[in-house]
Amino acid sequence: MTFTIAIDGPAAAGKGTISKAVANKYGFAHLDTGLLYRAVGARMLDGVEPIEAARTLSQDALEASNLRTHEVAQAASKVAAIPEVREALVDFQRAFARRQGGAVLDGRDIGTVICPEAEAKLYVTASAEVRAERRFQELQGKGSDLSFDEVLAEVKERDARDSERATAPMKPAEDAVLIDTSNLSIDDAVAAAIRAIDSKHAAG
Ligand code: CDP
Ligand code: CDP
Predict the structure, then answer these.
(1) Could you cite one Gene Ontology molecular function of this protein (predicted)?
(2) Is 16 one of the annotated binding-site residues?
(3) Do the beta carbons of residue 196 and residue 142 sit within 8 Å?
(4) Which of 17, 118, 126, 146 falls 20 to 30 Å from 27 in CA-CA distance?
(5) Among the atoms of ligand 2, which is closest to the Cα of residue 135?
């Protein structure tokens, strides 16, 4: 059995949280595709040329401990605008999407480019202020001294770069179900995702 759930949307919208809960509920494997771009971004910060870094990405690079930082997020969105970097990561993501047993992939272009044939597509979003507040809280928990305004500026800069790039820009697929989590608890956001997926599953 193959069944692909594509979950796209901007930073801190709740994609990862929803993806993990949904993968757990259906017993599917989960791939956070942002981690691929973060791993390439981290290698670029270490001085490796990004296309080369994408072509030689290893499991070790994906398990590096510094991938969740603010600097790496910015580097990720820069390397993500390079067509050859994206191209080097396509086969791995497509194979994951069609693996036996079902798969959930979250990112920016899963429903539009990586797996347009996905059985269920969600586009998870929230206002920039709400998303920045979530990231701000997470960063504070890690001891960061960035201000809310700095985090908000970073979120907006990354949104603009991700949605304005020529190759695989961030945007909802035409057949994606939109979920705005601005005023939803995590439980309510997960419930909305499961309702949307179950209705696609029943229809298919
Ligand atoms: O994967 P993505 O960057 O889209 O977001 P995430 O890592 O799932 O969520 C970012 C933060 O928002 C986490 O700290 C979640 O616990 C929180 N969150 C929330 O407060 N309310 C939601 N409805 C969804 C996520
Ligand atoms: O966790 P958060 O939503 O902040 O970011 P992420 O999902 O880890 O993605 C980091 C960066 O990778 C994004 O800002 C995008 O530039 C890029 N990305 C992408 O271009 N395509 C994807 N499928 C996933 C991430």
Answers:
(1) CMP kinase activity
(2) yes
(3) no
(4) 126
(5) 4
Superfamily name with CATH number, domain 4-198: P-loop containing nucleotide triphosphate hydrolases (3.40.50.300)
Answer whether residue 204 shows pLDDT above 70: no
pTM to 2 decimal places: 0.97
Buried/exposed code over 22-40 (b: 16+ C-beta within 10 A; e: otherwise) = bbeebebebbbbbbbbbbb
Amino acid at 68: R
Q: What is the ipTM of this complex?
A: 0.98
Domain borders along the chain are 4-198
**Residue 150: both structure tokens together:** 């700095």
Quote the ligand 2 centre to 34 CA distance (angstroms).
Answer: 4
Six-digit token string for 35: 């981690």
- In the reported structure, the alpha carbon of residue 170 is separated from the centroid of ligand 2 by a whole-number distance in angstroms of 9
Q: Nearest ligand, CA of residue 89? A: 2
- Mutation test of ligand 1: which of 77, 134, 162 has the most ligand atoms closer than 8 Å to its C-beta? 134
Where does ligand 2 bind, in terms of residues with CB under 6 Å? 11-12, 33-34, 37-38, 73, 76-77, 80, 107-109, 158, 162
